[in-house]
Specification:
Blueprint lengths: L1 H48 L1 H11 L7 H21 L3 H22 L6 H16 L6 H10 L4
Length: about 160
């Protein structure tokens, strides 16, 4: 009797699992990329909307060592505006997630060590999502996948 119940459940369970794997996983990959892209892109927009204040923050608040504040602010803004665009399209996805992960690490562990204002659990979530992108890749709904399928003959 118990064998019949298992067989009865096995078919629909496998079907649901296949549907989730086929449609759910690519959708989640896309949502993760869009979510993290929005966070950093909005931060970049904030920086360019008030450039004087951005440079001031890099000079006095963030106190970035080595680089002059103008250069550090410029690079941070370029990365925050450029990398999210690549993430949205899924182009050079793993590579574009690396600078954003580096920025998240600096925000949490360098700035967060000096100021409680930057010590935020949300930064850990960013890091986890960025690591998922770096490790797993962009997923099926991406230009990376289309390019690889066309030129590499591969599925990933």
């Amino acid at each position: 009797m118990s064998g019949n119940i298992i067989e009865l459940i096995k078919g629909p369970t496998m079907k649901i699992r296949q549907l989730l794997s086929c449609y759910g996983s690519p959708l989640i990959d896309l949502i993760i990329r869009l979510w993290i892209a929005r966070i950093f892109f909005n931060s970049g927009l904030t920086k360019i909307n008030d450039w004087e204040n951005t440079v001031f923050l890099f000079e006095f608040e963030y106190a970035v060592p080595i680089l002059p504040p103008e250069i550090a602010a410029f690079f941070a803004t370029v990365f925050e505006l450029g990398m999210p665009i690549l993430l949205v399209f899924g182009l050079f996805t793993r590579l574009s997630a690396i600078p954003l992960l580096a920025m998240s690490l600096v925000i949490q562990f360098v700035l967060g060590a000096n100021s409680a204002a930057y010590d935020n659990i949300e930064h850990y979530y960013w890091m986890i999502l960025l690591l998922v992108i770096i490790i797993k890749g962009p997923g099926m709904i991406s230009l990376d996948r289309l390019i690889c399928k066309k030129f590499c003959g591969g599925e990933k």
